[in-house]
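User: I'm writing a tutorial on reading structure tokens. Could you give me a worked example: one chain, its sequence, then its tokens, then a sentence or two explaining what the tokens reveal?
Assistant: Sure. Here is the example chain.
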Amino acid sequence: MNPIFGAVLERARKANAGTKWSEESPEAARQATSASKTQHRPAHAAKSPGAKHKGHTGDDYDPATTTEAVANQIYNETAGLRTTAHQGPGSDLDLQEARTAIGHVIHNRAAARMKGGLASPELNSKEASAITALYMPAYDAYGESHSAAEVSSSRRDPTGGAKLFYLDHGQAPPYWTQGKKPVTEYGPFRNTTPAKAVRTGTLTKIKIY
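And here are its predicted structure tokens:
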């Protein structure tokens, strides 16, 4: 196994505290994978009722300050997105660059002490199970999110210090975009995460401000 992804898997196992997992138990892996296919979605809520995030809920968590937590926030924002092209906008490389840009936004918000506005810095149990069971969309997205978290913490920021972003599903843009142009944008990607007013398959762009 690639050592980087081996480390990712080990982190995911630890994140899935309370869930038994064994390489010798393929049945458990199949059950987790089956569950993930119907429940795979960004974890925009605390992992458990007792999880503490300063009272924040939904998409209103503070920016993370550790690589692990930044990776989780990137994952929770982008895990439901799929590529639409082999190269250029909407490609796998484009999605990875978008994840890295989101990582920079998270770091920039933390440096500016901006509160809220982001997905949870934790994985919920279903996402953790999907990753440990090697459900490939989740496993790949987690590995790429962790890579993006590491890159965004150690390399030059191509966003120029951007502190805002949003996923454009074709809805009315946020009020704070008025009179502004995005620093950069990525996609379109195919959204596989049904949500309020967002259908599965909707083409989605990630816009950085």
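What the tokens reveal: The first strand starts at residue 81 and ends at 82. The chain is about 40% helix and 10% strand.
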